[in-house]
Design goal:
Belongs to the 'GDSL' lipolytic enzyme family. This is Rhamnogalacturonan acetylesterase. It comes from Streptomyces glycanivorans. The chain is α/β, with parallel strands linked by helices. The chain has one domain: 3-Layer(aba) Sandwich (Rossmann fold), CATH 3.40.50. It is built from nine helices and ten strands. The strands form three sheets. It has a five-stranded parallel sheet with strand order 3-1-4-5-8, with helices on both faces. It has a three-stranded antiparallel sheet with strand order 2-10-9. α1 packs across α6 and α6 packs parallel to α7. It is globular. It starts with a helix and ends in a 16-residue tail after the last helix.
């Protein structure tokens, strides 16, 4: 990258964070900022793009990985044709590394007023043994606040915080699925509350869904495949984090169903099949 490009990007980031910092958590509702309670429900219909900043649980996979899929890959099926979904999720990224690698800046370069940024991290933030990915919960919270929520609002777009989707972590003693990454779930909910930002509690919604179908049926949601079942996984796989097609579809449905209840202009663009 040229020196002028670096300077331009640095200046743009300072402007974004300066504008975002001036907003502050305490005045969000009063100003009717994008994604705030006072801005919600102000329009009957929306057009625009939903950008997704996330990890491998949401990313779009090529046919060479079939049947593996991410919920972001399936999300467009639950919105009307007026909404475009731009899935920028990519595996192995945390809230911090997504920023450091310039991936958030790439979204910020094209996002426009009226667009949305769905943010779901936590899986890789929690990998203590990986210095490139690990982000302590307190830092994760501030990245969400400053880089994802406030900076998105400074561009006139609406941030939507999504708590990390559940893993297939079953507690035989309780007969329920465990909360995955609880410190990150709590941090995401707290910053959304403090910033008056829209929240999709996918952690709770996915666990409720998994509790409903049970531990054995959940294998058909996650990437549990028998040897020889799919050419792309000839030896089979038992993956308790990632989804196969059915799971990605169900998680996308849970996300869109939650969006339908947020009272945002985007809420009116969720199709009826999301409600089932």
């Amino acid at each position: 990258m040229s020196r002028s490009a670096v300077n331009s990007d640095t200046t743009r980031r300072r402007l974004l964070l300066g504008a975002a910092g001036a907003l502050g958590a305490g005045v969000t509702g009063a100003l009717g900022l994008p994604g705030s309670a006072s801005a919600a429900g102000s329009a009957a219909a929306a057009t625009g793009t939903v950008y997704i900043a996330s990890d491998s649980t949401a990313q779009t996979y090529s046919s060479g990985y079939h049947p593996q899929a991410g919920w972001g890959q399936k999300l467009s099926s639950y919105f009307t044709s007026r909404i475009t979904v731009a899935n920028r999720a990519i595996g192995g990224r945390s809230s911090r590394s997504f920023i450091e690698q310039g991936r958030l800046a790439a979204i910020q370069a094209v996002i426009r007023p009226g667009d949305y940024l769905f943010v779901q991290f936590g899986h890789n933030d929690a990998t203590v043994g990986n210095a490139e990915r690990y982000t302590p919960p307190a830092d994760y919270k501030e990245y969400l606040r400053n880089d994802y929520i406030r900076a998105t609002r400074a561009l006139g777009a609406t941030p939507v915080v999504v708590t990390p989707v559940s893993r297939r972590s079953y507690n035989a003693s309780t007969g329920k699925f465990n909360v995955s990454f609880p410190a990150y779930v709590d941090a995401a909910k707290a910053v959304a509350r403090e910033e008056n930002a829209a929240l999709v509690d996918l952690s709770a919604a996915s666990r409720s869904y998994l509790d409903g179908i049970g531990v054995e049926a959940s294998k058909g949601v996650f990437l549990w495949l028998d040897a020889g079942q799919y050419p792309n996984f000839p030896d089979g796989v038992q993956d308790n984090t990632h989804f196969q097609e059915r799971g990605a579809v169900e998680m996308a449905r849970l996300v869109s169903r939650a969006v339908a209840g947020l009272g945002l202009p985007l809420s009116g663009e969720v199709v009826p099949t999301a409600a089932r």
